[in-house]
């Protein structure tokens, strides 16, 4: 397993290009199964998760061509409606092939998904939505067996709480269902509107995406289309926190302020200067240290759970005491003891972490436990005195494109050790 060796304490200066959003790319890729015509996707990040989903789509019958960041997927014929355990277990988003397969072929057998081990992560809301649309669903031996021989039908779906994946899954199924579907209490993450834009470019009729109520008029077939994936707001936030932790100044090319939601005000509040440019953001820490503040993770537009770990890394050296409350996932503080190895003062009580800022962290060997937790350790390592060795970096390869290269170009001493 590869490791990352980081010598910390150097400010970051330069430009980092922000990649397309992983969590949008994966869903629009799944949409390719809905049409027998080619879907051309621009700004697709080259990540382990993208490769894994590509393998899954190919075994369903999609033919792919990846050139630079342009990915063309053509699912002319579906040759298998089964998504096997080995291709679904590592990644949450792969479960979203179920809806398109069901909508197009009337049946599917899909393994229950994996993804970051940050909580129990059931799929009951996904199945609730598909059942409401008329699918017959059974669970057996870790697989979902679903059938809709007469096709899916539009339905009124009211989610009891917000789920990004279930909202997207309901949209992916409803675009080819007969009649109208309404989704109440829909997730409002920017990736939802991005998926809707892609589906509409393919000839679907989705309105309201980005609000809590989404309406979908089903159509009989979808066409080919071209769609550019929106920039990754989590990668953007992570590099903002990196330069705020190390000092220096970064230009994040392609980053969009409007995608940061409530995080924008929090970042300004802790003492980060954020300037909007024509094509990106310029970022630097205003003073010698950031100041502590309290955050609560919430669905968009609230502070994102996917930036919680990186924010905790930043708060370890902030001036004062901050509290961080995680409300989305029940097991998403695994980075706290690892940051503790580097001298951070963090105590966890249930879903709240209290961070007492220290003047400086010290490098140490640490273990990456999940994707965003891994990035928090990289940020801490970049800011710390001495060497940090981040073990198990395969998590990072799932979600941060060309991480070492982007950081090295801005002066970071970070190197991958292949094992
Ligand atoms: C691939 C992808 O896009 N992943 C993102 C997606 O995950 P994902 O789509 O899995 O997250 P959800 O919004 O669905 O999960 C929110 C909460 O709902 C629960 N839940 C979800 C579905 C369900 O059927 N039943 C249920 O109980 C989950 O366990 C969790 O506690 O949104 C999360 C919340 O912004 C992000 O952290 C993930 O990075
Ligand atoms: C949790 C994440 O991914 P997944 O939902 O695939 O586990 C993430 O992107 O931070």
Give a verbal description of the structure.
The chain is of the alpha/beta class and 419 residues long. The protein folds into two domains: 3-19 and 231-417, UDP-n-acetylglucosamine1-carboxyvinyl-transferase, Chain, CATH 3.65.10; 22-228, Enolpyruvate transferase domain (UDP-n-acetylglucosamine1-carboxyvinyl-transferase, Chain). 31% of the residues lie in helices and 26% in strands. The protein is built from 14 helices and 24 strands. The strands form six sheets. A four-stranded mixed beta sheet has the order 22-23-1-24. Strand 12 (205-207) and strand 13 (213-217) form a beta hairpin.
Write the layout of secondary structure elements.
Elements: E1 3-7, E2 12-17, H1 22-31, E3 39-42, H2 48-60, E4 63-67, E5 70-74, E6 82-83, H3 85-88, H4 98-105, E7 107-111, H5 124-132, E8 136-140, E9 143-147, E10 156-158, H6 164-174, E11 180-184, H7 190-201, E12 205-207, E13 213-217, E14 225-228, H8 233-246, E15 248-253, H9 263-269, E16 272-277, E17 280-285, E18 295-296, H10 308-315, E19 321-325, H11 335-341, E20 345-349, E21 352-356, E22 365-367, H12 371-383, E23 387-391, H13 394-399, H14 403-408, E24 413-417
Parallel strand pairs: 2-15, 3-14, 6-7, 10-11, 18-19, 22-23
Antiparallel strand pairs: 1-23, 1-24, 3-5, 4-5, 7-9, 8-9, 11-13, 12-13, 15-17, 16-17, 19-21, 20-21
Helix pairs in contact: 1-2, 1-7, 4-6, 5-6, 6-7, 8-10, 8-12, 10-12
Bound molecules: uridine-diphosphate-N-acetylglucosamine and phosphoenolpyruvate.
Residues 23, 91-93, 115-116, 306, 371-372, 399 line the site of phosphoenolpyruvate (PEP).
């Amino acid at each position: 397993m590869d490791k990352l060796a980081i010598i910390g304490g150097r400010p970051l200066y330069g430009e980092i290009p922000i990649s397309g959003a992983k969590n949008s790319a994966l869903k629009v890729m799944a949409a390719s199964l809905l049409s027998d015509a080619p879907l051309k996707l621009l700004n697709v990040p080259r990540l382990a998760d993208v490769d894994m989903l590509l393998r899954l789509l190919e075994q369903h019958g999609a033919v792919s061509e990846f050139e630079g960041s342009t990915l063309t997927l053509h699912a002319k014929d579906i040759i298998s409606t089964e998504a096997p355990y080995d291709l679904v277990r590592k990644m949450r988003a792969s479960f979203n092939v179920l809806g398109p397969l069901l909508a197009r072929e009337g049946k599917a057998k899909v393994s229950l998904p994996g993804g970051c081990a940050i909580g129990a992560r059931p799929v009951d809301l996904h199945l609730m939505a598909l059942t409401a649309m008329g699918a017959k669903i059974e669970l057996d031996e870790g697989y979902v067996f679903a059938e809709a021989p007469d096709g899916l039908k539009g339905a009124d779906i009211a989610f009891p709480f917000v789920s990004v994946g279930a909202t997207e899954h309901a949209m992916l199924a409803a675009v080819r269902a007969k009649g109208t579907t309404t989704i109440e209490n829909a997730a409002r993450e920017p990736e939802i509107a991005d998926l809707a834009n892609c589906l509409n470019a393919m000839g679907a009729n989705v309105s309201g995406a980005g609000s809590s109520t989404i309406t979908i008029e089903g159509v009989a077939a979808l066409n080919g289309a071209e769609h550019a994936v929106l920039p990754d707001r989590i990668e953007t936030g992570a590099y903002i926190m990196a330069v705020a932790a190390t000092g220096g100044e970064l230009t994040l090319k392609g980053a969009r302020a409007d995608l940061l939601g409530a995080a924008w005000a929090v970042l300004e509040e802790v003492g980060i200067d954020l300037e909007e440019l024509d094509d990106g953001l310029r970022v630097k820490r205003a003073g010698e240290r950031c100041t502590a503040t309290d955050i609560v993770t919430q669905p968009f537009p609230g502070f994102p759970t996917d930036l919680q770990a990186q924010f905790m890394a930043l708060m370890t050296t902030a001036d004062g005491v901050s509290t961080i409350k995680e409300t989305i996932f029940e097991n998403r503080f695994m980075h706290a003891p690892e940051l503790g190895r580097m001298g951070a003062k963090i105590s966890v009580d249930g879903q709240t972490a209290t961070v007492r800022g220290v003047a400086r962290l010290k490098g140490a060997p640490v273990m990456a436990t999940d994707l965003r937790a891994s990035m928090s350790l990289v940020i801490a390592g970049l800011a710390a005195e001495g060497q940090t060795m981040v073990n198990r970096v395969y998590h990072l390869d799932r979600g941060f494109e060309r991480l070492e290269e982007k950081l090295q170009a801005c002066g970071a001493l970070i190197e991958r050790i292949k094992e």
